[in-house]
Amino acid sequence: MKLPNKYGSISKLSGKRRRPYIVRKSDETGACMIIGYTATREEGLAMLAAYNANPWDIDKAKITLQELFDLWQEKKAPKLGKANQSSLKSAYKHCSKLGGLPYKQIKAYQMQDIIDNCGKGYSTQGAIKNLWGHLDKFALELDISSSRYADLLTSDPIPETSRQPFTKEEIAKLWEHQGEEWVDTVLIFIYSGWRISELLALRQEDVDLAAGTMKGGIKTKAGKGRIVPIHPKIQGIVQKRFEQSQSGYLFEYNGKKLNQTQYREFWAEVMAALEMDHTPHECRHTFETLLDAAGGNRRCIDLLMGHTSKDTGNRIYNHKTIEELRATVELISI
């Protein structure tokens, strides 16, 4: 089907590509501008229709970093997960000092300087590097810049960890300081075994205080929608967070859902203050270690952790009730 004059064009690129169709349109000067790439021609038609209904009015030579970021937030960010959007938005705060510069004038060394001097750890550095990658790709699609400086950037690697569980003495120390900011979240982690992404995603509606359970899980088929009984020792602090929530999420900051980048910063402050050296994931490791040491049923532990049982008989035939899961959780006596 031939498209109307000046409407734009859709062409299929050669080679094996995930999105082989390139969507283009000429601007007022006759210069061809890339609108984007799609997996099918139908998606390309939809992209052209959306563009023609609401053109992205940009001056390629003058568009600043701030303007590109704002346009990216409008056009591209909604396609990402909420946690990823929040992380990238936080990362931009470190980049905003370059906000008034034309994007095509920003060089690799300036991007790298933002990463190196952000004053944060590997998580934030990685988020900034990730953001530069998104903006570079978007600038390429808009034909603003052909440079992919983000490919040259580096950030601190994720530190190696032996996944050492918290000791009994360390857990006792956490309880001694439970009233201090964010320490309660470490205890909730240790006594529930959630992954960091799962715990931060818990909403009030996922917490049943009357039944004493939490429901969540987002990573694996075995882990999704699983129920974890609330250990009696953390019942009070879970209830307090539930009742104080303004955002609808169990973990929040300034009335909004807490993202991983923010939480890892708070985590680092807690670890430094209490002279401990652990990662959030080691809470999950601690939970499983304590259950195993207490003689917990392996199938129950797998269900609580969101793991697929390695034993076929257990995986298919062994069904456990919530009360059995509760009994397993309460084997943790420290």
Task: Give a description of the structure.
By secondary structure, this protein is mainly alpha-helical. It has three domains: 1-55, no CATH class; 57-160, DNA polymerase, domain 1, CATH 1.10.150; 168-329, hpI Integrase, Chain A. The chain is built from 14 helices and eight strands. A three-stranded antiparallel beta sheet has the order 1-2-3, with helices on one face.
Query: What is the level-2 CATH architecture name of the largest domain?
Result: Orthogonal Bundle
- Element pattern in H and E: EEEHHHHHHHHEEEHEEHHHHH
Biggest sheet features = 3 strands, antiparallel
Strand content: 5-15%
Tell how many strands the DSSP assignment holds: 8
**Overall pLDDT score:** 87
Termini separation comes to 71 Å
CATH domain fold name of the largest domain: hpI Integrase, Chain A
Low-pLDDT runs: 311-318
CATH superfamily of the largest domain: Intergrase catalytic core
Helix content: 40-55%
| Secondary-structure class | mainly alpha
> What is the overall number of helices?
14
The best one-word shape is elongated
Q: What's the CATH first level of the largest domain?
A: Mainly Alpha
The total domain count is 3
**Could you give the order of strands across the largest sheet?**
1-2-3
- Rg measurement, Å: 25 Å
